[in-house]
Write a structure and sequence with these properties.
Layout lengths: L3 H14 L15 H8 L6 H14 L4 H14 L122 H8 L16 E4 L14 E16 L4 E9 L4 E7 L13 E11 L2 E11 L10 E4 L8 H15 L9 H7 L4 H9 L4 H32 L9 H9 L7 H14 L6 E6 L5 H14 L3 E5 L3 H14 L13 H4 E4 L5 H13 L4 E4 L13 E6 L7 H8 L6 E6 L5 H7 L4 E5 L10 E5 L4 H13 L3 E5 L7 H19 L5 E4 L5 H12 L5 E4 L12 E6 L7 H8 L10 E5 L11 H11 L3 H12 L2 H4 L17 H17 L9 H12 L9
Parallel strand pairs: 8-13, 8-14, 9-11, 9-12, 10-11, 12-13, 15-20, 16-18, 16-19, 17-18, 19-20
Antiparallel strand pairs: 1-7, 2-3, 2-5, 3-4, 5-6
Helix pairs in contact: 2-3, 8-9, 9-25, 9-26, 11-12, 22-23
């Protein structure tokens, strides 16, 4: 039986959280009187108590805020927790007698003079109108008048609401521990999920696919999002698009078959005295047992409309007096797998977290928690899964994100110290010698290039190995700076290696270095065969050539080697590896970089990226690296004209592309990579290539490039495009990095809204490398109006507005987070689950505490840091190439 006193308790608790504004039930507390009286008189509670509570609600609106708080505190203390079990007295009994066992609820004190109860004001236009007359009796109306037609719903404007009062006590988590099948005392963090009710071997196997094997796994299986159903609202105050919880009475319910009897539809009409609403559930006939006429229920969902009438989309139904996990609260939404439903997952997580979170030991010393203002760890775990309110959810996120950042920064700080403690060989070059090399270049270095080169030379001259990140925008000239650094290494008697992510890019570096380094080594390379001292090593290199390169690297006759991951094979050995250069470093896993660096005795390391990274972020994520930024472009480069092209403008884009080809230019057309699958990527490129060749450009020569092609096939296609044999190159994102075709002046990106800003900027950098004006056309799948608020459309607009890669990087960080352009999992940051690298205040807070900790106890050997040391080891243990972030 529904407990109306418990329902009232929830309404009053909501009212208290709102600051006693008489909107705990919108329209006023007195709006609950009809439903309360109807349900209360069906219980065994004495009539006098019911009358006292009704009188209290009638007078509540006339009280001041202070009087409301005192009166509510008194009422909550007197409300019965459970319904009495004895039968109600017979009609002849004195129903007005007050039970001796419980004091009567006194109505709140009346102010003088008393005001009449507050009436609900006019309904704003943007809200759903009242759909029925107020009813005092539960007699259901005729079917056709249960829900009155309502005009179309318009989105509601936000209305100011008082800030909820802060909680008066520490969060206690999701209530008492729920019962488990086995003996609760025997259940620990390592207990299997099968100890939970409803989780047998088959379901346990499915949960394992989500990473849930033992109870402790639930703690870090964080919700992917939340739906806030914590606000109770009457039906006549519903607003389109909001997520709400309604407490109402079932007027009628019925089930009918649809689609020729194959589907069943449960329909219920609910009323709360202010209006009525019709709800529908598909293929859930068992819900009829929970929807008997006259029963009070709790439903939650997003307000929508059907045929002009209000309804809830995908409504969640629960008993009013049940422990609500799906309505009436902030509801967590978890990742699911096959045959695992959301409500079941929430129930299991509720039980698992409720058992395990209180058993977790606090890893942070009290001093850190106090300085940083952090919630304790157990409470944070409880609140991140089942938050009591938005404030506690924010506090839980802050605590868990702080822990992640602290562990990340401690590990990076430790790695920096280890690197600085190592000993390497100093590599130097005289100014005159290097200046003579620079003089042979066909252009002068920019100021930013000169500054970066000076940083690198200073690092290489030390006995401590260089560990530097060279960051520069597309076309800013990073490669020539790296080439000059390699010339310094060679002139000092050492070898240099450059690793690129693709064979195309490696071959391009090889050609450029042959042009850039000839004057480099006027001493060791003078009169020597250049090709015998600069080698290209790819996976597709013939075995005979590989053996010769292996031998040349071992005996030192090969001074510089450029290659792909073929460089980190066991057969590759160096006589004296002094400098390692890693291009597009975010494309490599940290283990791959560590292997190449391990080929020499602590060689100097220079990592390069053409993806601009905000400086604050770079200092955090690459805190073990020194940073040089090339933020100037070579003089004379024309800005690339960038335009967004919508679906209704595609033919114009094709016509413009054709006009450029008629002027002797070439063009790229990029296909979107919707999923990270070579097969899908290849199919998209193949299909688009065939369509364009047959339907759009039948008279032109189109090339095709995608990730499923063999390296020699890719090289042949690129060579044909570079040499002008093909007019248009249809490609996937394989051309994102490093491809240099000066005659290409048009970059058309299909489905551009699928890509991040970093990728789009890289695509744009493939053109504009010659003397002619270049263009970047971003073809969006969105309409010019319908996608105005879409994140993808915002990215495309940003591309139109600026050519500055650093400005775009800040925007990309804001829109999509760091993973898009850092490759955070590859770079060793898969452990960041809740921490956002856009949260600079929290990053600075964690950095401060990491530095303080490292200064006081670098190895975390003090007793108060023992648990933190365990978490630090666990955090880094699972990362690829642990111990080498850069």
């Amino acid at each position: 039986m529904t407990n109306p006193f418990e329902t009232l308790r929830k309404i009053l608790q909501n009212e208290a959280a709102r600051g006693y504004d008489n909107k705990g039930m919108v329209g006023g507390i007195d709006k609950f009187i009809p439903a309360f009286e109807q349900q209360a008189r069906k219980t065994n509670v004495e009539e006098a108590l019911i009358a006292d509570v009704v009188g209290w609600m009638k007078q509540y609106s006339a009280l001041s805020t202070e009087d409301r708080a005192r009166a509510m505190s008194d009422l909550l203390a007197r409300l019965p927790v459970a319904l009495p079990s004895p039968q109600r007295p017979p009609a002849s009994a004195n129903v007005n007698a007050t039970p001796a066992s419980r004091p009567a609820v006194q109505p709140p004190p009346q102010p003088a003079p008393p005001r009449p109860p507050t009436q609900p004001g006019p309904v704003p236009q943007q809200r759903l109108p009242d759909t029925s007359e107020k009813r005092q009796e539960p007699t259901p109306p005729p079917r056709q008048t249960a829900v009155a037609p309502a005009p179309a719903i318009r989105p509601a404007e936000p209305s100011p609401r008082p800030r909820p009062s802060p909680p008066r006590r520490r969060p206690q988590g999701p209530g008492p521990r729920p019962p488990l099948s086995p003996e609760p005392d025997g259940v620990g963090l390592d207990a299997p999920f099968t100890v939970l009710r409803g989780v047998g071997p088959e379901r346990a196997e499915k949960l394992q696919k989500l990473g849930l094997s033992v109870m402790g796994d639930a703690l870090t299986f964080y919700p992917r999002r939340y739906v806030d159903y914590s606000q109770l609202k009457p039906i006549n105050r519903l607003e389109y698009g909001e997520e709400v919880t309604i407490i109402a009475t079932v007027w009628e319910s019925y089930v009918k078959r649809t689609r020729g009897g194959q589907s069943q539809m449960v329909t219920a009409v609910l009323s709360d005295g202010t209006g009525a609403i019709e709800l529908t559930w598909f293929n859930q006939p068992w819900l009829m047992d929970k929807l008997p006429q006259g029963k009070q229920v709790q439903v939650a969902g997003r307000v929508d409309q059907y045929m002009g009438r209000p309804t809830l989309r995908n409504p969640e139904l629960e008993e009013v007096d049940s422990e609500s996990l799906n309505s009436g609260r902030i509801v967590p939404i978890y990742n699911l797998t096959q045959d695992i439903k959301g409500p079941a997952m929430r129930r299991w997580m509720y039980e698992a977290v409720g058992y395990t979170a209180p058993r977790v030991v606090e890893p942070l010393p009290p001093s850190i928690r106090e300085r940083a203002g952090l919630m304790n760890y157990s409470d944070a775990l409880l609140q991140i899964h089942f938050p009591d309110n938005q404030e506690l959810l924010a506090a839980a996120r802050k605590r868990i994100a702080f822990d992640e950042l602290l562990l990340l920064l401690l590990g990076i700080r430790r790695q920096r110290a280890e690197w600085q403690a190592a000993t390497g060989q100093p590599l130097t070059a005289a100014d005159e010698q290097l200046n003579s090399v620079i003089a042979t270049l066909p252009y002068a270095l920019t100021g930013a290039q000169t500054r970066a080169l000076n940083d690198i030379r200073a690092d290489m001259a030390r006995t401590r190995p260089m560990n530097r990140l060279l960051q520069g925008d597309v076309g800013s000239g990073k490669t020539v700076v790296a080439a000059l650094a390699m010339s310094v290494a060679v002139n000092s008697g050492a070898q240099a290696a450059l690793m690129a992510p693709t064979a195309i890019l490696a071959e391009q570096h090889y050609r450029n270095l042959q042009l850039q380094i000839p004057g480099t080594a006027r001493e060791p390379l003078r009169d020597a065969n250049l090709k015998s001292q600069i080698a290209l090593l790819l996976g597709a290199t013939p075995d005979s050539e590989k053996q010769a390169i292996y031998a040349g690297l071992r005996d030192g006759s090969i001074k510089i080697v450029i290659g792909t991951q073929a460089l980190i094979q066991e057969k590759v050995e160096f006589a004296n590896l002094g400098l390692v250069v890693v291009d597009e470093q975010h494309r490599f896993g940290v283990a791959q970089r560590a292997k190449l660096r391990g080929k020499g005795g602590n060689p100097h390391l220079l990592v390069m990226t053409a993806t601009p990274i905000p400086r604050t972020l770079a200092l955090t994520v690459y805190g073990d690296l020194d940073l040089s930024i090339i933020d100037e472009m070579p003089p004379g480069r024309l800005p690339i004209d960038t335009r967004v092209v919508y679906v209704n403008e595609r033919e114009r884009a094709y016509a413009f592309l054709r006009s450029q080809i008629q002027q002797g230019r070439q063009a790229f057309i990029i296909c979107p990579l919707v999923e990270e699958s070579d097969k899908i990527e290849a199919k998209a490129a193949v299909d688009e290539h065939a369509r364009l060749q047959k339907q759009v450009f039948p008279d032109l020569r189109l090339g095709l490039l995608h990730g499923r092609m063999k390296p020699d096939e890719k090289d042949a296609v690129m060579a044909g495009f570079r040499d002008g044999e093909t007019h248009i190159l249809v490609s996937t994102s394989v051309v994102e990095v490093g491809v240099d075709v000066p005659n290409a002046t048009v970059m058309l990106v299909e489905g551009a809204n699928w890509f991040g800003l970093a990728q789009l900027h890289q695509f744009r950098g493939r053109v504009g490398r010659g003397e002619h004006q270049s263009y970047c056309l971003l073809a969006s799948d969105l309409g010019p109006d319908g996608g105005a608020k879409d994140e993808g459309d915002a990215r495309l607009k940003a591309m139109e507005q600026t050519q500055d890669g650093f400005v775009l990087a800040e925007k990309d960080l804001e829109l999509r987070g760091p993973g898009e352009f850092l490759g955070t999992r590859q770079a060793g940051f898969g452990g960041l689950r809740l921490a956002k690298l856009t949260d600079l205040p929290l990053i600075n807070l964690a950095r401060r505490e990491a530095e303080t900790l490292y200064t006081a106890d670098p190895n975390l050997e003090k007793p108060e840091h023992a648990l933190l040391a365990e978490k630090l080891a666990a955090f880094w243990q699972g990362m690829e190439g642990a111990g080498d972030v850069s």
